[in-house]
Amino acid sequence: MKTPRIGFVSLGCPKALVDSERILTQLRAEGYELSPTYQDADLVVVNTCGFIDAAVEESLDAIGEALAENGKVIVTGCLGERADEIRARHPQVLGITGAHAYEAVVGTVHEHLPPLHDPFVDLVPPEGIKLTPRHYAYLKISEGCNHRCSFCIIPSLRGDLLSRPIGEVMGEAERLVAAGVKELLVVSQDTSAYGVDLKYRTDFWGGKPLKTRFRDLAQALGGLGVWVRLHYVYPYPHVDEVIPLMAEGKILPYLDIPFQHANPRLLKLMKRPAAAEDVLMRIERWRGLCPDLTLRSTFIVGFPGETEEEFEELLDFLEEAQLDRVGCFAYSPVEGAAANALPDPVPEAVKQDRLARFMEVQERISAERLQARVGGREMVLIDEVVEEGAVARSRADAPEIDGQVFIDGATQLKVGEFVEVVIEEADEHDMWAHLDG
Ligand code: SF4
């Protein structure tokens, strides 16, 4: 398996630049790497300009150059509106999409160069990658990872942690917000390790010095006036520093922490980061500081050597931890992962049985936790307006992976709008609400 690599040529005005940024943000979040050269890229996207004749010529030349140097080219941007002209000159282009149609570009990239999927670490479920609507965006803050979890192949594919300097990340975040994004989803393989590789180097944003560090990033993002959600955080001691920002409402009171297991022997076999931390104690402390904290996590059952007792320890952990949202996988080997060499594989039927038992426990807990919110007032963000009403998300719900809030009849609402609702009903996943007032 090889990480898919994209070459990107961006021409045109500042608006086209924002589009380029959005396309790149999405592709990076899905695990594509960017290639600085045509030769190393598996495919090249050319974001064109068609404003004046000179720009049209420049764009057509750029497409020609990418075709000559690489061969696989997708065209987007203003000139994409004039597809016939492009096809007449360059019939070999793989796909053409128009201006500000970044969802379509990313779709065309998937078609010709599918993203890699690692079930244990991907944020986006395997059922398919829905494209990020315009009102929320993934913000990738680093590439690669310094850990070597035995079930994971990310470090061998993408290498060690490589953080983007904070000024660059903040610049991208600011442009996304200026382009209408209402929620930023901070992603990476290990968000809490942000900046370690750069020794927390000082960088500049808006003329101000800022350290390339997890807490400083969370604080700076929290000043942009949009929802900021943190994914892929490990329970290191310094994570405690962002909880006050959540309590103050600067960033969303939401932590996505992939625990993967609760038994120390298995965590060691998995080579998990922060495996020695007392997770239950930390959770208690976090909830003490920020009572509406939502905790999401993922787990693996049936990891090689997992005994019935160890599995039961995991169920006990679920009861104690009272996590809000949980995903669970039955272990299956990922090609090239070190864990494949571990002895005592768990039989498939046992794995499936454990998965079902795990989900039964967690579904009850999730349902109870949602039930406790019925009758309360909450701020939600509208994701979609359909015939029956509006589909929204609360602060506790990340797109794609968590639940939704349905507001029957509220067809007057707009996508990307924040509204206050009163929660009427909940099941183990979703909630139903009416507008407040
Ligand atoms: S922390 Fe572990 S699971 Fe996550 S990317 Fe790194 S090696 Fe993979």
Summarize the structure.
The chain is of the alpha/beta class. It contains 12 helices and 20 strands.
Characterization of this structure:
It is a single chain. This protein has helices at 14-29, 53-69, 83-89, 102-112, 154-158, 166-178, 214-222, 243-247, 264-270, 279-289, 308-321, 348-371; strands at residues 5-10, 33-35, 43-48, 73-77, 95-96, 136-140, 142-143, 162-163, 183-187, 202-205, 208-211, 227-230, 254-256, 294-301, 325-330, 377-386, 389-394, 405-408, 418-426, 431-435. The protein has 437 residues and is of the alpha/beta class. The model is unreliable at 125-131 (pLDDT under 50). It has three domains: 5-112, Methylthiotransferase, N-terminal domain (Rossmann fold), CATH 3.40.50; 136-372, tm_1862 like domain (pyruvate-formate lyase- activating enzyme, Alpha-Beta Horseshoe), CATH 3.80.30; 376-435, Beta Barrel (OB fold (Dihydrolipoamide Acetyltransferase, E2P)). Helix 1 (14-29) crosses helix 4 and helix 11 runs parallel beside helix 12 (348-371). 41% of the residues are buried. Strands 2-1-3-4-5 form a five-stranded parallel beta sheet, with helices on both faces.
